[in-house]
Structure formats: C-alpha cells, structure tokens
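Sample 1 of the test manifest.
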Amino acid sequence: MASAEETKDTATSHSLAPTDDEAPPADDAVLDLGKKKKKKVKKTEDGEGADGEAAADGGLDLTLKKKKKKKVPKEGTEDEFAAKLAALDLEKDGGDGEETAAGEQSGDMEQGTGIWKHDETKEISYELLLERFFSLLSQKNPDHASTGSRSYKIPPPQCLREGNKKTIFANIEEICKRMKRSSEHVTAYLFAELGTSGSVAGSKQLVIKGRFQQKQIENVLRKYIIEYVTCKTCRSPDTDLNKGENRLYFITCNSCGSRRSVTAIKTGFSAQVGKRRKMQG
Amino acid sequence: MSIENLKTFDPFADAAADDDPGSSSKQEDYIHIRIQQRNGRKTLTTIQGLPSKFDRKKILTVVRKKFACNGTVVIDANMGEVIQLQGDQRKYMQEFLCDKKGLELDPKTIKVHGF
C-alpha cells in the first residue's frame, strides 16, 4: 500500500508541480537585480494565481477535459494496484489469506460490513478513511466534491469566412448571454484586441475584418472572461458588469458579493495598413 | 481527487499584488504589444508605451537584427513614439523586454494583446 500512497501523493502534488517549475527561473533572474526582487516575487505569485484561475474557471472546455483525463488513469492505477496487492497476498497466504486480505482492505462502507462494522475495533488506515470521506462527499454533496472548480462552459465560437478578408463570428449573441455581458462590450473588446474593425450583420452576427480562426477568437474570449467576467476574489463567473459612478465599469459578484473596478476597453495605437486610408487621414 | 486543504493556492496573492503601491500608482505605464493583420498572412507588431528612458532607435537596431525583421519608429499624436515591426514578433519582443540581455523590464508592466 505504501507505493500506492506514493502514487497518490504525486497525484495531489501534480497541480503544484508547474508552479514549482515556474519559480526557479524567476529567482535566477532576481539574483542580479536586488532592487526589483519584491516585484518579481510578486509577479510569480501572480502567475500562480493566474494559473489557478485558469484551472479554476475551466476557461472553456479544454482545461477541464485535461483534468479529467489526468484523474481517470490514476484512479485506475490505484484500483489495479489494490487488485495486485490482493493477488500477492493470495499467493503468499494461500486460500485462507484471501479472506483476511479482503477483510483488512475491503468491506462495504455503505452497508457497514468488514472493516466498516460498527463494533469493529481494528484500526482503519488513513487512506481508507479518506476514501470513505470523499465517496460520501461525492454521494451526498456533489457540489462540494467538485473541488471548487465548477465547470464554466461556453459554446465554442463559430467562425465562418465571408469572402477572403472577413470573418463572421456567428454565435456571439449566445456567448454573450452565457457570460451575461452586452454584445457591444464584447465586440468592443474583440476589436480592440484584434486590432481590427467590423460590423454587426443583420442576424446578430459579427463581421470582423481580417482572417481569424476559431482558436484565435477563443483565445481572445478567454482573456475577456478572465478580465471581465470572473470574480477575482472567489473566481466565480457569476458576475454582473455595471456602469458605476464616474463612467467606470464595475464587476459585482453574485456569489460572494465583492465588487471591483474594471479597466475600460481602449483601442491602442493602430498602424495604417494600406495606402488608401492614409489619404483619408 | 484532490484535497481542498492541501492546495497551495494563496487566495490573497492577487490582493497583495494589487496593493503594491509601486505598480498600482502608475496604472497607465503598461507597455502594449499588439498585432495587426495586413493583407494575406502578413502582420505588423506594434510596441506602445515604452519608458522614455530608452532610445527607440537603438532598440530598433538591436531588435531588427535579432528578429530579422524590419521596423520603424512611428510618431503618433496620442500614443507618442511607437515601434512598428514587420511580422508577428510579440513573443520575441516580450522576451526581449524582460530579458537580462534586453531591457530588463518587469513582465507585469507588459501587456500582450491579440489572439
């Protein structure tokens, strides 16, 4: 069982590993600077936070899927390992060993048999107790069991090509509804980020100038969600965007009640592309 | 199955970062790296808001050689001097700005836009 514990340890520490990887290079960079040390350290923390955020949001579906993929094989290996252990014990002790091994390890926790009997005095290992806790938790309170990272799913953006130089973003309305943001706000952000312009076609579609792939738009949407949708305090995407006093935008979280200001969308410098526009300007 | 208590996520990391007086007082000091599509698969990269202590021309000469691309300094009425590079150099430029061999800027002040 010891090695099983090890595998489990790695499983839990898996989420920590990338942050550890991140830290050392930053530290190396810090070595020379001295002055900037504080800032840099904070930056790495921020990076962790962002990572956590991304993971917590689930962003779009992708991250979630990955997580699930990670989880499933590990549980599988654990079971296999348990099976192997049982098999080993069988070989050692012969026929009688089967019962003892089974008695030690298993027993139905719901029916209260085996080791889970009410008047059983045998010590129950930590791992078994932990297992029991989580199985009960997932049975009775599935909301808590989902480790806080509730999936936040947004339909993938549908991109069509109009002619050669324009992209149609077909389901912007649907996505905006899911995020509870006005489509104007989202389009403004999209245009500012992509450095283009565009228009709204008749049937609630967005026509963007330039060629964009679905993946690229998805990336921009992800950034939008991180910046304008998720609550920074509790990471819930259940937020409202309101215009507060002084023309500032505020995000109010519906689940924890926190409120934070959000930077206005700004289009930065845009270079003149093509000669014709130069004549106008 | 991960355990809630064992996560090393620090819930106050963001708050601490925001409270840092040095960074929050100069909100407008971000360096923006943007991308713009031109015709075909050509793109432009613009770097806006570099601190004035740097000589843009000198940066350009270094960068041009390093990234093997051409570029100019455009003087804009609102945005000041903006470096314009040919092609998608966002990633390289960000590395260059933060690198010890480059400008050694704080990565927090740099914002990369675009897809």
